[in-house]
Amino acid sequence: MITVATWNINSVRLRMPLVERFLKDEAPDVLCLQEIKTIADLFPYEAFSALGYTHHAVHGQKGYHGVATVSRIPFEEVDRHDWQANGEARHVGVRLKDSGLVIENVYIPAGGDEPDRTINPKFGQKLDFLERMIGWAGAVAEPTLIVGDFNIAPLESDVWSHKALLKVVSHTPIEVETLERFRVAHDWVDLGRQLVPAPARYYSWWSYRAKDWRANDRGRRLDHMWASPSVAAKAVSHRIVEDARDWEKCSDHVPLITGFDL
After folding, report:
1. How many domains does the chain fold into?
2. Which CATH number does the domain housing residue 152 bear?
3. Which domain holds residue 22?
4. How far apart are CA 53 and CA 64, in angstroms?
5. Phi and psi, residue 218, nearest 5°
6. Phi and psi dihedrals of 132, rounded to 5?
7. What is the mean pLDDT of each run of 10 residues along the chain (262 residues)?
8. Rounded-to-integer distance, Cα 102 and Cα 142, Å
């Protein structure tokens, strides 16, 4: 079995002790990180290698964004798409050498606060990013897993209150509809909801603003693992490591782990 994890770490250098804890506790074969907030030269390669993760694909950027995939399994980097169309580091793709599985690691823009591209350019950039992903997905031919922080909670049960969040960026109808067109473009399977069927409670992000996130529990499912149908058929387990939200100096996101019978 191969296990793949994804986690928006919100600064890998700041939170490397948490990453080490996670890797020692959970030991996924592959870890995809988003929002690493560092240039590639300053990425903590040695710390990962010391833990057995000797294969690295890092698309970094100073202070913002950035994605990295680390692995115990040999891989080759296969692509870096500029779906933001401005040079931001938001994607890296690799192919595992043993199984041939392609893993695409993506950090979709948050989109600002106002769900109106006429007054909020960031929201328009998010929608345009998704449109470029849709164009790419339509041409995907290999068995592929795409993971990361999508910054969209598509289902009503993916947020603490569907009614309260209908006009809040990450759960607006236009975002949900656009993400659904991305799903259809390659017939992606949402592994989270394949293995934790709706309407079961499932969140991966809680705001830092909540004093007691567990009691408040105003979460959203912003992080995702989607797969080509042939890959999804081999998914056998899926977990949300919710306790990581309690760790000292934690990220506002928690890791997801999926196991595949490959």
Report:
1. 1
2. 3.60.10.10
3. 2-260
4. 24
5. -90, 70
6. -70, -35
7. 98 98 98 98 98 98 97 98 98 96 98 97 98 98 97 98 98 98 98 98 96 95 98 98 97 98 92
8. 7
